[in-house]
Amino acid sequence: MMEKLIEFLKGNKINYDIGIIRDNNSFSVSKSLKNKQVIKFKWKKNSISILLQKLKKRGVVLSLNVEGKYNALYNIKGISQQVLIEYAVDSHVQLPKLLLKQFRTGDYLYFLDSNKNQIIRSSARNYNTKFGYYSLFFEDYLSKNYEKIITEIIEIILPFVDGKKRIVSLKHWNDNVNKLFLMSIFRNPKLVEDINKQSKFAKLFAGGYDSEFIAYVGEKSKKFFIDGYKPIIIINKTEKGMVTLKSLIANLYIDNGVNAMIMLLHPKFAIALVPEKHYDQMLKEQGQQTYMLISINFEITKLNKQIYNTAKFNNEDVIGIKSDLEELIK
Predict the structure, then answer these.
(1) What is the side-by-side strand order in the sheet with 317-319?
(2) Residue 52, class by beta-carbon neighbours within 10 Å (0-12 exposed, 13-18 middle, 19+ buried)?
(3) Which of the listed residues 82, 137, 161, 233 has the most CB atoms within 10 Å of its CB?
(4) CA 322 to chain centre
(5) Is 157 helix (H, G, I), strand (E, B) or coil?
(6) Bridge partners for 292 per DSSP
(7) Distance in angstroms (rounded) separating the CA atoms of residues 165 and 290
């Protein structure tokens, strides 16, 4: 029976783990007692009935044992093994949909493949998605703990950019930017891979650390990832837009040669992480309401070119308004 189930999963290219359940938690192990085995895989919650029908036709009958908001445990008729189904969706691997929507041209999202030097049309809904990359539980976790921060920043800063507000108040500014910096790490597959290569402890886990584990550990450590830097806003007052990267953050030279990390959240503004010494100098010159202003088309074009060169170096996509992407490959 278990063999038929595994054959079905392999045929549908569904990744699975075999392990045990202990204290209401599932553990993937290399060897487990046959009468205690639990096979775990991800499936869409709204199509569970279709899954059960397909398995029944293959002689695998599942009966519900217990169901929660994010998963369900099933018994396999005729044997003692069980099935743990984790509910999942088509996850945005790196940039969330709410951020991608800011860079749409009309109803479409355009990105520049820096390897082929070609502009490709997509959508905010489908760009860089993968089924089950995150569990449904972690999708909710991302929405409440990270994407909410992006939404709040956009809602506060855009009225200031448009001249509807003269002063902005950013609560928990340093902590929120620090969290978004952590997000750029654990949502980047290349960085997760690097962490697994460098960590001795990661080798103790089947498949190494995943994004979800790194996020939880990063938060619990209470580490200040942007130590030595101060976040300030870059306001774009030109008719052009800033572009962004799939990795969200780029190392760029701004303000007459200052090396900074730029968090690219919107065509009309970004967050610059500048060295503390430069930040202190800006405070002396501008006062508490400190920000950088780009008001000349040449300056925004120069900034976008740097972002484009960063993308080519890292072999990743540039995302932005179509006309701004076209300017990059002229």
Answers:
(1) 118-122, 109-113, 317-319, 244-245
(2) middle
(3) 233
(4) 23
(5) helix
(6) 234
(7) 15
Chain position carrying tokens 């430069």: 278
Pairing of strands 291-294, 249-254: unpaired
What is the torsion angle, in degrees rounded to the nearest 10, for the CA atoms of residue 76, residue 82, residue 87 and residue 90?
-80
- pLDDT band with cut points at 50, 70 and 90 for residue 32: very low
SS3 content of the chain, % helix, strand, coil (to 5): 40, 30, 30
Residue identified by tokens 């308004």 is 321
Say if residues 118 and 325 touch (Cβ distance below 8 Å): no
Asked if 85 contacts 43 with a C-beta cutoff of 8 angstroms, the reply is: yes
Residue 289 has pLDDT above 80, yes or no: no
Residues 6+ apart with CB under 8 A from 302: none
Mean pLDDT score of the chain, rounded to an integer?
89
- Tell me the Ramachandran region of residue 268: left when phi exceeds 0, alpha when psi lies from -120 to 50, beta otherwise: alpha
- Structure-token match 């041209």, residue found: 105
Spatial separation of the C-alpha atoms in residues 2 and 4, rounded to whole Å = 5
What is the full DSSP assignment across 192-207? HHHHHHH-TGGGGSTT
Burial class (CB within 10 angstroms; exposed 0-12, middle 13-18, buried 19+) of 129: middle
Tell me the torsion sign for CA atoms 196, 202, 207, 212.
negative
Residues 6+ apart with CB under 8 A from 135: 42, 70, 86, 87, 88, 212
Cα 95 vs. chain centroid, distance in angstroms?
5
- Would the pLDDT of 36 be above 70? no
Q: Is 37 helix (H, G, I), strand (E, B) or coil?
A: coil
Helices first, then strands: H and E counts in the chain:
11, 16
Give the CB-side neighbour count of residue 253, counting CA atoms within 13 A. 6
Name the nearest CA neighbour of 321 among 270, 272, 268. Answer: 268
Work out whether strand 229-236 and strand 109-113 pair parallel, antiparallel, or are unpaired. Answer: unpaired
The token pair that represents 90 in the structure block = 């088509």
